[in-house]
Amino acid sequence: MPPERSFDRGSSGASRRTFVKATSAMAIGTGANSAVVGAGESKTDADPETRDDIERRLESMTVRQKVGQMTQVALGEAGEGFDPDDPFETHDEPETVGALFTDLHVGSILNGGASGPTFDGEEFVAGLNGLQRYAIEQTEHGVPFLWGGDALHGNGLLDGCTSFPQRLNMGATRDIDLVEAAAVQTGSEIAAMGGHWNFGPTVDILRDMRWGRYFEGHSEDPMLLGKLARARARGFERSGRVAATVKHFAGYGTPNTGSDRAHARTSMRDLRTRQLPAYERALEEAKTVMVNSGAVNGKPAHVSEWVLTTVLRERYGFDGVIVSDWDDFLRLLTNHEYRPNTDDGWRWAVKEGITAGVDMHMCGGEVSPAEFIETAVDLVESGEVPEDRIDESVRRILELKRELGLFEQPLVREDRIGSLVGGARDVSAKLAKESLVLLRNEDDVLPLEGTERVLLTGPGVEDGTPNQFLMQHGGWTLGWQGVEDGDLTEDGPRPRQTTVEGAMKERLGDRLTHVPTEFEAAPYESIYENFDNGFFDVTDAQERAIREAASATDAVVVVLGEGPHNEGFGDRDKMRFPAAQRELVALVDAATGDDVSLIGVVLAGSPRGTAETFDRLDGVLFAGQPGSDAGVAIADTLFGDYNPSGRLPFTWEANVGHVPQCYDDYPPRQSVDAGAQTVQFEFGHGLSYTDWAYTGLSLSASTIKNPASNPTITARVTVENTGERAGEHIVEVYNTESYGSVLQPHRRLLGFDRVHVAAGESKTVAVELDLSTLEVVPGDVPGWKPTVVEAGEYELSVGEETATLTIEKTASITDPKPAPGRNGSAGGRCDD
Ligand code: BGC
After folding, report:
1. CATH number for the domain whose boundaries are 436-681
2. pTM over 0.85
3. What InterPro entries does this protein's entry cite (predicted)?
4. H helix count then E strand count, the chain
5. Among 405, 465, 591, 651, which is least packed, fewest CB within 10 Å?
């Protein structure tokens, strides 16, 4: 019997980080240009690499060297650093890190899980430069490698980094420019670290809070998601030295039952109108794509020619590099059980994956790069995979290296990274503030005046916490599951940060009493162990201290939520708060009189909390995972120095039994005749400390003859701040009623804008509306017809203000052809 393959990434206690060894020995001069010697070439260092040079390189490479370029290897899984002499422990072959290049000719390395071999910036650059120089000088073809990693909400790979608010928070801001500014900072840091590839933005639509990656997804609205993702891709690539990655193509965000990497719950109609458009938008700015680790309509995306070639290459014209996700050729066998987990199954997986369109395989903890290369070479030699197909991929990979300037400038200066790490503080603080969503504010209990005595209690917000988990950062922060590694010390590694306790203490001094409650982050636990994204408790001593403080306080701020988590380890089956937190709220409720304000602050990567808890609280602020500037942002908001403006980027169902129920689903949203409340807070919900009124909604054109030639219009509306505080306000224009040949979504967001208005003043806002948002797939169940905006009347609304838009002609804005691959359409490879 062929041997069984095993797959077990990140088992209990696993860590993806080790320290680099002997980097100082490899330190190199600044800005030095290492000799770039292509086989048989006579180029000088100064000559820019051209496309013809790429062709010459390709011609001079052996099949083995080419397949090596298609191989990306995870370093650090078993302790490897960047020293070429380091033993390569993750797999049996090769023996050293250096031999990955000299023997296997690998084209790329990655440090997965936001943790490199060191958290020190200069050490990182010196190490990477040393390895790059080795790869160029010691290999026959002298091609530099690409380094990739996950800097997904800031460059969370280095000690002292700015951890920007997580993607869920970014969605709440609707502030595309600011989100892009954060991405520019991240991209510059990756470039200054010597890196070339950032595996973001994540463009997977959010619908299911049970999914452990919910915090990554920006929004459940396709248009908002697409705009944010495109801006982030553009920002990451701004330096010209870093490639962004649109991931995980396509449909990864709707895994069945919310289980990470399960098959997608979708339909052709849903894919074409609500899922694919966001990826398509983001692709305009990204040089690479990462594949969905799950399956779409019963076909794993990694072997789907329809997904990777017919849609991505032929319909969208994407000509960049497609990289697999972590060990995903093997996961076809171990996760999807698509073929027996045998040598034959493995060979089939490699063949099908490459044939479907994957250019580079990410070899993580389980797939040995040597084995991938052997298998692929053998497939070419036996004629099962044409060499032309290999050439296509290698050409794209070399072209990417050329575009990023790796051939001219393979090394970077060591002295730049230091001044960048921890930067963009203004951007981070503003984003954090804008991302907070005020959910509830009974009797205007907020803002606090600042003169009160306040009891702060709850888990995970202690100031001066050593380098261990806090609840404010989330996954991909100095570690895969969040800040997770290193011995506990007072001085790091950890992100630059202000904490809720620290910022409140600064304001209140002795008027603050802080009683932290128990919190143990257990990153590698899972729902099967009754995991609540952290273990929470209130000890007897803490309970006594809370009761005592509660009897002499004016307000209680209770922090609630969940610990950092990621991927499958973050999957959850509950929406209500962990029992200890529910009991904590009941405790403060019972221990305080009616005149004491009870305020909840939710730090979580998903909608955590139900009416059972919220009904006991006078005010509730959903803070998400605001990152480095959490403390300042939350305190400024609680005390009224900042007037909250964030809007929920998702639907907050009443309880987990109603998941998934997105705001743009088809009606009905509840069972026939059932009056039950299924939604707790709607998409777009968000209160302010002032009041807003809209008047005079008008459209630049209320009749559109042909939406194909008129894809945008402008809505104008006057926004009046009728309250007593200045504030920012997000104006959102929705389609709230329309009829057609198929069901229309409950509501659809067409456009939004953020505006600042002084107390008592008004501003007229012009919001650009993207009419492609109104596209549907007409026809019967198969859903293959071109996407169109159907003729008819569309009610558009801003609050209670409405206007009617009349579309005279049914026409397609984005995709006038039938579903990709449909008989007779472009790209007939996948006829149905
Ligand atoms: C994730 C990717 C990530 C990769 C590298 C995978 O487990 O699905 O999103 O980019 O690891 O860390």
Report:
1. 3.40.50.1700
2. yes
3. Cellulose_Degrad_GH3, Fn3-like, GH, Glyco_hydro_3_C, Glyco_hydro_3_C_sf, Glyco_hydro_3_N, Glyco_hydro_3_N_sf, Ig-like_fold
4. 22, 28
5. 405
